[in-house]
Design goal:
The longest helix has 17 residues. This protein is of the alpha/beta class and 486 residues long. It is globular. The termini are far apart. The protein folds into two domains: 278 residues, Aldehyde Dehydrogenase, Chain A, domain 1 (3-Layer(aba) Sandwich), CATH 3.40.605; 193 residues, 3-Layer(aba) Sandwich (Aldehyde Dehydrogenase, Chain A, domain 2). It binds 1,4-dihydronicotinamide adenine dinucleotide and the ligand O=C(O)/C=C/C=C(\O)C(=O)O. The ligand O=C(O)/C=C/C=C(\O)C(=O)O binds next to helix 7. It comes from Paraglaciecola arctica BSs20135. GO terms for molecular function: 5-carboxymethyl-2-hydroxymuconic-semialdehyde dehydrogenase activity. InterPro entries: Ald_DH/histidinol_DH (IPR016161), Ald_DH_C (IPR016163), Ald_DH_CS_CYS (IPR016160), Ald_DH_CS_GLU (IPR029510), Ald_DH_N (IPR016162), Aldehyde_DH_dom (IPR015590), OHmuconic_semiald_DH (IPR017628).
Length: 486
C-alpha cells in the first residue's frame, strides 16, 4: 500500500500522532494509499526547517547558481515524466492525453520561467537633487520574503503548486507546501526530485492534511510563516486572509470564477466552438479559468447551441490510460455530489437540459468512480443560482444576446472577476469589449493561451494580487530602498 509522507528538512517522515487518511482514485474509487495527516508538531517542524534553511547554504547561492539548480529541477521532472504523469492521473483521474500536454510540462516549465525573468529584471534607481548640490542615489534592492506557505488545490495539482514554488524559490525563499488532501502524489514526489538535484534540506517542505483544524490552518496561522500564497475557493481564501491578518503577513490569492464567453455573430464559428468545448469541458470543467456562462449573439445562437451539443456528444469518456479518452471523472465523489446538486438545481430553476444532466453508466468496473455527464443548459434566468455560482464541473449555460452593450453588462454581472473569453473576427470590437471586462484575464479568439511572463490573477472576489513574470516579484520579495547620500 502506498504511503504519502510529509517531506521535512529533506526527509520523508510520518506524523507523531500516527493519524492517516485514505487516498482514493476517482476513476473507480479504488484505494491508492494512505496519507499521513500533519498535526501542529509536523507543521512546526516544517516551518522551522524552512526558517533555518533561509540562513543556510541556500542563502549563499548567487542568482545564477539558483537558476542552474532550478533548471535542474525542471529537467529532472521531465526525465521522470512518466512517474509524474502516472501519479497525477491516478490522483485526479484525468486523461493522460491532457496531463501529458498541460500538467506535467507546465510543472517543469514553472521552474525555468521565473529564473529567466529575474535574471533580466532591472534594478530601480532614482537620482535625487539635494540642497548641497551633491545629490543622493536611491537604489532598489530585493531580498527574499522568507518562509512562504503554499496552499494548493486539486484541479491542476503539480501545475498550480509549482506555479508558486518556482518563483518563490527563484527569489531565494524557502517553502512549506500543503497540497490538497485529494491530490498528494506529485507534490510528495517533488521532494525526491529536490534531493536528487541537490536543493539544500529545508528549502522545500511538504505537509499533508486538510484545511480547518488540520495542516492548512496550522500552517497559515504559524507565526514564522512570512507570506501565504493560495489557489482555491473564495470562502477558503477569506479564512486564510483572516489567519494572515495576525502578524500582518502578505497574501496572494487566486480564487473562484464564473467566467463568461462572449460569442459574436462575426466570429469564426469553428474556432469559437473548439475553444468553448475546451474552456467548458477540459479537465472535466475543473479549471478556474473555465467557461460556465456562454453568451451568443442571436443570429448564430441556434447554430452555436446545436454545434456545441454535437461537440459534447463526441467527447470520449474513459480511463486515464485510454489513448482515445479526452474526458475523465471529477476529482472525488464528494465533488461530484456538489456538481450533481447543481445539475438537479438547474432543472428546478427551469433550465432546458440540452444535453447531459446525469451520471453516466460507465459499466461495473467504473461505476463507483466520480463520473458525471458533460452538460449544457439553456433558458435559465440571469439571477438563477446556476448562472451565478461557481460549479466547477463540466457544464455551461448558453444565453442569446442582441447588443454589445447588453452583453458587456451581462458578462460583468457577477461577484467574480477572473477570466473572460471573446470570439469575434472584428479586432476593434474584441479589444473594445475586452477593455470593459471586469476581469483580470481576457482572451480574444483563444482560451488558456498562457505566457508565463504576463500578469495572472483575478479582480473582484476572484483573488488578490497578480503572479507571473515580474509581477510575482512584488509578492515573493521584499523591496528595500537604499538611499546613498553623495
Ligand atoms: N482554482 C480554483 O478556483 C479552485 C476552486 N475550487 C472550488 O472550491 C470548491 C471546494 O474545493 P476544495 O478542494 O475544498 O477547495 P478549497 O479552497 O477548500 O481547498 C484548496 C486548498 O485549501 C486548503 N484549505 C481549506 N481550508 C483551509 C483553511 N481553513 N486554512 C488553510 N487551508 C485550507 C485545502 O486543504 C486545499 O489544500 C470546489 O468545489 C470548487 O468549486 C477548488 C479547487 C480549485
Ligand atoms: O496557467 C496557470 O497558471 C493556471 C491555470 C489554472 C488555474 O489557476 C486554476 O484552475 O486554478
Amino acid at each position: 500500500m502506498k504511503e504519502y509522507k510529509h517531506f521535512i528538512n529533506g526527509q520523508y517522515v510520518t506524523s507523531q500522532s500516527g493519524k492517516t487518511f485514505e487516498n482514493r482514485c476517482p476513476v473507480d474509487n479504488s484505494l491508492l494509499g494512505i496519507i499521513h495527516e500533519a498535526g501542529e508538531a509536523e507543521v512546526d517542524a516544517a516551518v522551522k526547517a524552512a526558517k533555518a534553511a533561509l540562513k543556510g547554504p541556500w542563502s549563499q547561492l548567487t542568482q545564477a547558481q539558483r537558476t542552474t539548480l532550478l533548471n535542474r529541477v525542471a529537467d529532472r521532472i521531465n526525465e521522470r515524466f512518466d512517474e509524474f504523469l502516472q501519479a497525477e492521473c491516478l490522483d485526479t483521474g484525468k486523461p493522460h492525453s491532457i496531463a501529458s500536454h498541460i500538467d506535467i510540462p507546465r510543472g517543469a516549465a514553472n521552474f525555468k520561467a521565473f529564473s529567466e525573468t529575474l535574471a533580466n529584471h532591472p534594478t530601480e534607481s532614482f537620482r535625487l537633487d539635494t540642497p548641497d548640490g551633491k545629490g543622493a542615489a536611491n537604489v532598489g534592492h530585493r531580498t527574499p520574503k522568507g518562509v512562504i506557505a503554499v496552499i494548493s488545490p486539486w484541479n491542476l495539482p503539480l501545475l498550480l503548486m509549482t506555479w508558486k514554488v518556482g518563483p518563490a524559490m527563484a527569489c531565494g525563499n524557502t517553502v512549506v507546501v500543503k497540497p490538497s488532501e485529494e491530490t498528494p502524489a506529485t507534490t510528495t514526489l517533488l521532494g525526491d526530485v529536490m534531493n536528487e538535484c541537490g536543493v539544500p534540506p529545508g528549502v522545500f517542505n511538504v505537509v499533508h492534511g486538510f484545511g480547518a483544524n488540520s495542516a492548512g490552518e496550522f500552517l497559515t496561522t504559524h507565526p514564522l510563516v512570512d507570506a501565504i500564497t493560495f489557489t482555491g475557493e473564495t470562502s477558503t481564501g477569506e479564512a486564510i486572509m483572516k489567519a494572515a491578518s495576525v502578524g500582518l503577513r502578505n497574501i496572494s490569492m487566486e480564487c473562484g470564477g464564473k467566467n463568461p464567453a462572449i460569442v459574436f455573430a462575426d466570429c469564426d464559428l469553428d474556432k469559437a466552438i473548439e475553444g468553448t468545448m475546451r474552456s467548458a469541458f477540459v479537465n472535466c470543467g475543473q479549471v478556474c479559468l473555465g467557461t460556465e456562462r456562454v453568451y451568443v449573439e442571436r443570429p448564430i445562437y441556434d447554430k452555436f447551441v446545436k454545434r456545441l451539443k454535437k461537440g459534447v456528444e463526441q467527447l470520449k469518456l474513459g480511463r486515464p490510460e485510454d489513448e482515445a479518452a479526452n474526458f475523465g471523472p471529477l476529482v472525488s465523489l464528494e465533488h461530484r455530489e456538489k456538481v450533481f446538486s447543481y445539475y438537479k438545481l438547474a432543472v428546478t430553476e427551469g433550465a432546458t437540459v440540452e444535453i447531459g444532466g446525469g451520471i453516466p453508466d460507465m459499466g461495473r468496473e467504473l461505476n463507483d468512480g466520480a463520473w458525471i455527464e458533460p452538460t449544457i443548459w439553456t433558458g435559465l434566468a440571469d439571477d438563477s443560482r446556476v448562472v451565478r455560482e461557481e460549479i466547477f464541473g463540466p457544464c455551461c449555460h448558453i444565453r442569446p444576446f442582441d447588443s454589445e452593450e447588453e452583453v458587456v453588462e451581462l458578462a460583468n454581472d457577477t461577484n467574480y472577476g477572473l477570466a473572460a473569453t471573446i470570439w469575434s473576427e472584428n479586432s476593434a470590437r474584441g479589444i473594445r469589449v475586452a477593455e470593459q471586462m471586469e476581469t483580470g484575464l481576457i482572451w480574444i479568439n483563444s482560451w488558456f493561451l498562457r505566457d508565463l511572463r504576463t500578469a495572472f490573477g483575478g479582480a473582484k472576489q476572484s483573488g488578490i494580487g497578480r503572479e507571473g513574470g515580474v509581477h510575482g516579484l512584488e509578492f515573493y520579495t521584499e523591496l528595500k530602498n537604499i538611499c546613498i547620500k553623495l
